[in-house]
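Why do we bother with holo predictions? Because pocket geometry can differ from the apo form. Keep that in mind while you read this record for shikimate-3-phosphate.
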Amino acid sequence: MSTVRVDPADRLRGDLRPPTDKSISHRAAILGAMAAEPVRIRGFLDAADTNSTLQAVQRLGALVQVGADEVLVRGTGLRDAAVADDPIDVGNAGTLMRLLPGWLAAQEGRSYTLDGDDSIRRRPVDRIAEPLRLMGARVDATDGRRPPFTIGGARLRSIHYELPVASAQVKSCVLLAALAADGATTVSEPAPSRDHTERMLAAAGVTVHRNGRHITVAGTDELTLDELVVPGDASSAAFAIAAGVLVPGSRLVLRGVGVNWTRSGFVRIAQRMGAIVIGDLEDEPGDEVAATEPVSDVDITAGPLVGTVVEPEEVPLAIDELPLVALLGCFAEGETIVRGAHELRLKESDRIATVVDGLSALGATIEATEDGFVVTGSGGLRGGRISSHGDHRLAMLGAIAGLASREGVEVEGMEAADVSYPGFMDDMARLM
Ligand code: S3P
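The structure, written out:
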């Protein structure tokens, strides 16, 4: 495990192109594998998590050719994934673990076991097991709810599924299974969550409709996708945005950032706190399902912040950035409260506990609640030592806290950042 010391920065200046989107890359590789014709993926993220997905789809019979600017996936079609006798390793990738079973459930007469690292083995899969069983698949999980787990494929029936929590991963799993089901499947979400799967299905010629919180997908025989372009990752960009907002005197431009409304909740929260973040952000869409992902440059200027309240319906739109909301809260005037975010406890670490313990050790006044946290701004952070707990977003949180702190921060386990943002520290160093 490597410990990296991050010294306070004077001011940050310059341009940065964040890595491409992890969520969209996972989906592109999986849909590419489900398609019968080759799919060209431009800007596929080259990071540990998404490389786990490329390896998994290869195990399932897809041919993958990795070039300098694109990844070419030659899939097997919806119902013809190859037999995999040994467990498929999802590594640290929760998205892979929850989306792939949607495809596997449709492989009649074949069963597949999924397993991953120690962090993955703590994360629940019962939330995808339930709808897949209702569709006719068999799912057997360790202790009824964790990996390793086995999916027995079947001829699937369409369902109407009410998601118990707003989770794009669970929604996507059901929508992928729906492709091979008889008839049309509807998934109802309690609040909007990221909609990359819906957009990519629309791009693949699938009939996908949204009616308020209900999304309906018709069964199909094939996906028709020639080319997919992956934009910059809004969640990775959020770390640089936070740094630009917090380090006095900073002025940054981030290039090619994905600005899908379902991913830009953090920017809206930061703007509400007074941050100057300017970009051509997508407006809240109506019921029409777009077949593309919007992209924009984003300009950031440092400035003073005030506390805010993040309400439950905003949580899915900023779920991976809530640790950064806590960090902004440390520098803001007054209280910053996040509620309705129990899901944070089920991420790569229990992110309510790890964020609260981590930032407290750096001098923050922050308290955990059952479903979020309360931060009392104290004009900044002293600094100190923080552990990533093997969680990429905690590692990067620690580094950004270091840049904005008075005394610097030592981050234990900085290498965890590689699962979504290889070269993160080099990018930050280039801005100094
Ligand atoms: C993801 C959805 C989110 C997010 C995760 C990636 C996705 O999880 O936290 O990092 O790609 O669908 P949930 O929607 O399950 O909360």
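The first strand starts at residue 3 and ends at 6.
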